[in-house]
Amino acid sequence: MRDGGDIEALIQMMARLPGLGPRSARRAVLHMIRKRGLLLTPLAELMTRVARDARECLNCGNIGTQDICDICQDNRRNNGLLCVVEDVSDLWAMERSGVFKGRYHVLGGTLSALDQVGPEELRIPKLSARVDSEEITEVILALNATIDGQTTAHYIADQLEGRVTLTSLAQGVPIGGELDYLDEGTITAAMNARKPV
Amino acid sequence: MRDGGDIEALIQMMARLPGLGPRSARRAVLHMIRKRGLLLTPLAELMTRVARDARECLNCGNIGTQDICDICQDNRRNNGLLCVVEDVSDLWAMERSGVFKGRYHVLGGTLSALDQVGPEELRIPKLSARVDSEEITEVILALNATIDGQTTAHYIADQLEGRVTLTSLAQGVPIGGELDYLDEGTITAAMNARKPV
Q1: Chain A, window 37-56: residues with a beta carbon less than 8 angstroms from a chain B beta carbon
Q2: A 88-127 → B contacts, CB under 8 A
């Protein structure tokens, strides 16, 4: 009734984004209409361009706007280090930390017998090929500390064993973490990996 | 670093929407890119059209895509009843309830000495003109139960007194509300407005 057309359709489509519901989608759409020149028009233009240009990097699986992503093209990055992550969001999280200066390989998920995801469904054959063809000295398995993530890490470790140095992220108490709020698995891992002060 | 261009710009602009922060904006953008045909492309098209077409109804201040909004154009609605609200979002909330079949007048805010908002900054002169020119029998003041909202309601009541029947929304216990969680003002209002069962 209020506006049968585009505004209502925009609200309903915005409400399908993760993190937004019907209420926040309405608020966001009103806000965008009020800030048309600052927000709605630029957003429309950016979305049009990203819808046209976004693609997976043919080399590592990162999402960018070129066939080979910025990171793979960046000559200042260390070619010898390859960080294997499950998802593009993990790659982005790693980049925000700024700690890693090598290159990435995005698997696109984890192995899962239940969901019938085998190595061929992921970017695992490509990973193996990169280890053979690029001058990689160390592969860092930065998979999530979930059962599926660790299963996948073990599978990859089996595949690459003897061909390259394999490491994984340290497990322990997160910075700012309080023991009282940590699960037993994390405390056990942190205790087993304890270091001299 | 991850993508200096449009994807990063899209994330940063999405993060400026109410209800989204940097983290949820990243999740939303990744989700949109993955659902390009279902989500990103239609969103871009809708936003482009809404940015071009959205406007305030010249009569009531509702936001729509025509000079006179759907509600003002709808002949089935009761011309005699006029519901005065602060904001378009209040109008939308009222429409969702489906209880009101008259027309609206959106003030565009409340009077505020602090923010130097006087009657001329709101749609109050236009309200007065509508009461004179349209066949309005009752004006329902559906302003928020805040100090500014009630101050504005009093001002409008003063202006329109004697020219039209004035009513306001009932105050009381919200449906599903538990007394234990209600503020004293609401309980007082509900007690004072108590009705025979």
Answers
A1: 39-51, 53-54
A2: 88-89, 91-92, 95
Are B111 and B119 in contact, with CB atoms under 8 Å apart?
Answer: yes
Q: Where are the domains of chain A?
A: 6-53, 63-168
* Tokens standing for residue B74: 């709808």
Instruction: Report the alpha-carbon distance of residue B49 to residue B65 in Å, rounded.
Output: 9
Residue B174 — pLDDT band, cuts 50, 70, 90?
confident
Q: Are A122 and A107 in contact (CB under 8 A)?
A: yes
Q: Higher pLDDT residue, B67 or B169? A: B67
Q: In chain A, what is the straight-line distance between the N-terminal and C-terminal CA atoms, in Å? A: 68
Task: From the options 1.20.1250.20, 3.40.190.10, 2.40.50.100, 3.40.1360.10, give the CATH code of B63-168.
Answer: 3.40.1360.10
* Average pLDDT score over residue span A104-114: 92
| Inter-chain residue contact A65 with B6, CB threshold 8 Å | yes
Q: What is the pLDDT of residue B104?
A: 96
Closest by CA to A139, choosing from A87, A113, A114, A102, is: A102
Query: Are the C-beta atoms of A160 and A153 separated by less than 8 Å?
Result: no
Band (A54; pLDDT cuts 50, 70, 90):
very high
Which pair of tokens denotes residue A164? 């390259």
CA end-to-end span of chain B: 68
Taking an 8 Å cut-off on Cβ atoms, the answer to whether A19 and B9 are in contact is no
ipTM passes above 0.95: no
